[in-house]
Amino acid sequence: MSWHLGIDIGGTFTDVVAHDGSTGESRNAKVWSVKDDPQATISSALESLDLSAADVHMLTFGTTIVTNAIIQRQFGRVALITTVGFADVLDIARQNRRMIYDIATPPREPSPVPPELRFEIGARMRADGSVMKTFDPDEVREILDAIDDDVESIAVSLLHSYANGEHEQAVGELCQARSPHVSLSHQVWPQLKEYERTLATVLNAGVMPLVANYVATLDAFLPDDLRLELFHSAGGMMTPEAATALPLSLALSGPAAGVAAARQVAMDVDVPLAISIDMGGTTTDVCLIVDGQPEVHEQAEVGPWKVNLPMLAVHSIGAGGGSLVSHGAAGLQVGPESAGSDPGPACYGRGGNRPTLTDAAVILGYLRPSEDAGGGVEIRKDAAEKTYEGLARQLDIPIARAARGVVRVANANMARALRRITVDKGVDTRDCTLIAFGGAGPMYAAELARDVGVRTVLVPRDSSLLSAVGCLTTAPSYTRQRTVRLAGESWDARIFQDVCASVAAEARESLLRGRPADSEVNLSYLAFMRYLGQSYAIEIPCTPETTEEEFRAAFWHRHEELYGYHTNEPWELQSLRVTARMEPEAVDFAPLTPPQVEPAPTDTAKCFFEGGSTDTPIYSRDDIAPGHALRGPLIVVDKTSTTIVPPDCTVEAISNGHLRIDIGEQS
User: Fold this and answer.
1) Rounded to the nearest 5 degrees, what angle is found at the Cα of 263, between the Cα atoms of 464 and 41?
2) For 282-429, where are the alpha helices, taking DSSP H only?
3) What angle do CA 259, 262, 267 make, to 5 degrees?
4) Residues 58 and 100 in one domain
5) In terms of domains, do 93 and 176 share one?
6) Residue closest to 551 by CA, chosen among 527, 575, 568
7) For the range 369-376, what are the long-range contacts, defined as Cβ-Cβ under 8 Å and sequence gap of 24 or more?
8) Parent domain of 607
């Protein structure tokens, strides 16, 4: 029982990578995801590896269960208890439109809690954490008596609870008698901004029953001595106990695992500026990685809401291999609706009858029979072409040209996402390397790179399974953040050190929940500083021993770097973030044995590129050794993925089994 499994459960396929720590053996596979059934999905993954659950000592995985529940509003019925005068904070929010100056944009999503399930109590804290009005438990008891039986969970968000959570704790203890699923805002997001804190608390409460049932299903299915870990949105692993207490942390679980693995690839090849692009069956996720560190934001879009929790700065668009294609008044559209795993794209022969991006790839010759799709899937070109017949007639163009147009639209969508995380932030794409992975990422990455001005594309080893690799190799970690509001003019080193100790204890406790208490934990600290009156803060690395003078100097220096100036105006340390991290389990993949002969094509395919059709050689990835540069157009295939090298581009193998594509002259 020495196998460690990393599993990424996606909307269409589930990727699994296994490593035996005693022998160094590795196995991998790609299987169909079974919708809403993690037990069946994991069982299928184990079977594909010729393993049983009894062979596995640790299983780590990413899941989209929380993301999908929030996007589709399929979370439990939540009651909200808040301070008198704040019951409508979710309705008031920040404004009633997502884009205030676009009158064509529909109004924002309504409150996730209906008015009849919002309740107020008189207990109140001041901003400094002192008690303004004492807590009356009878008020809460009356509310609990009035809550109907359909309510599955309770959210508690009281004014200024980030400064003092005693009242929320008292309310929560009473609520536990009514429901096991109680979410307290000072535990979910102890920060300023009542709307954001209340929304995060409500969404966390809403997915609590779902995640608790999910974890219970896995616990009942898996052996007692098998250790289970889940990937969270900030880029680390957490225990099922921690995930059940704070399930909103899983909101970007799957995409974060891919970014974590791409970060390691960027460090392997010493790339200072990298863009990860993870293209799966339903979405494409992109993230900027600077000096081996992906950005971590306090806010991320999850469905119709902006959720405030530390999360990797992953930007997702609804354009994946299984994205459905439509044509209307606005022209061709790819996604966001997806064929998923059931029925899936038409070319897989599972009942799909609408055109998808994967079907376009088959028509264009990019995808070949089963060895390209993995999992023994037979790819049917006739089924793909049939779905494009109507679109081609509507546009009055050949089927291949219609498919080519769909690819261009999908690339344009992805290009906008890439520019949003680079050019819009002052990053020159010409200085970046594109790290392409996921089932479809390497198929479109080279053309996409040319569109946005990127000169180099890296296709990692096991690119189609990279998110599963990230689950396997990433260190367990947990992040906590708290509002501090400590002004430089009244700096108190003891107060700052006490806050550091308190937040660090929270992060450590959350990380060790379900783990041995004596485990070694490393702590890192990040201060958020601003001038008084500013809305946004600057991140400054620190330690509990950092002095006021050191903070001021670091803040001024960073402010000049970002904005070209600093002033002598009063400043404050707005909040503190602490990350607790453990060393990951050692996973050493066996080195690849490069072939000694020059690679030769195994087959040819008629492919359609921008300049028309051409006979394109197909190479096995295992046959490409370092030192042999091949010029496109060509196709590189392995068991689970396909890499397209367009005309005027070259590809060669580099260290660690990665492929590097050099983009040709750019117009």
Assistant:
1) 35
2) 357-363, 381-395, 399-421
3) 130
4) no
5) yes
6) 527
7) 371/637, 371/639, 372/637, 372/641, 372/642, 373/348, 374/13, 374/29, 374/30, 374/464, 374/639, 374/640, 374/641, 375/13, 375/29, 375/30, 375/31, 375/32, 375/48
8) 603-652
* Cβ atoms of 481 and 577 closer than 8 Å: yes
Find all residues with CB under 8 Å of 542, minimum gap 6, and list them: 525, 526, 527, 550, 551, 554
Query: Is the backbone peptide bond immediately before 106 cis, with ω within 30 degrees of 0?
Result: no
As a whole number of angstroms, the distance between CA 468 and CA 470 comes to 5
Q: Is 431 helix (H, G, I), strand (E, B) or coil?
A: helix
pLDDT at 375: 47
pLDDT score, position 266: 92
Asked if 354 and 346 count as a contact pair (C-beta separation under 8 A), the reply is yes
Looking at residue 582, its amino acid is M
Same domain, 502 and 609: no
Cα–Cα distance, 303 to 309 (Å, whole number): 15
**pLDDT band of 349, cuts 50, 70, 90:** confident
Same domain, residue pair 185 and 79: yes
Mean model confidence pLDDT for the chain = 87
Q: Which residue has better confidence, 69 or 247?
A: 247
CB 423 within 8 A of CB 429: yes
- Section 230-242 average pLDDT: 85
Model confidence pLDDT, tens digit, residues 26-70: 888 888 888 778 888 889 999 999 998 888 888 888 887 887 788
Please state the length of the chain: 667
- By DSSP bridging, strand 153-157 and strand 13-20 are unpaired
79 and 200, same domain (yes or no): yes
- Going from the C-alpha of 595 to that of each of 598, 599, 626, 634, the distances in angstroms are 8, 8, 9, 19
Cα separation, 509 vs 171, whole angstroms: 22
Q: Look up residue 97 and give its DSSP letter.
A: B
* Residue keyed to tokens 């700065």: 313
The residue among 284, 278, 353, 280 whose CA lies nearest residue 317 is 284
Looking up tokens 């993995």 gives: 374
Count of domains observed in the chain: 4
Residue-wise pLDDT for 256-278, tens only, equals 888 988 998 999 899 999 999 99
Query: Does residue 308 sit within a domain?
Result: no
Cα torsion angle, 199, 203, 204, 206, sign? positive
Contact 214, 65 (CB under 8 A): yes
Residue 262 lies in a domain: no
Q: What does the CA dihedral 387, 392, 395, 398 come to, rounded to 10 degrees? A: 160
Locate 232 and state its tokens. 């969270």
Partner residues linked to 612 by β-bridges:
609
Query: Which H or E run includes 80?
Result: strand 78-83
Amino acid in the structure at residue 3:
W
By DSSP bridging, strand 13-20 and strand 3-9 are antiparallel
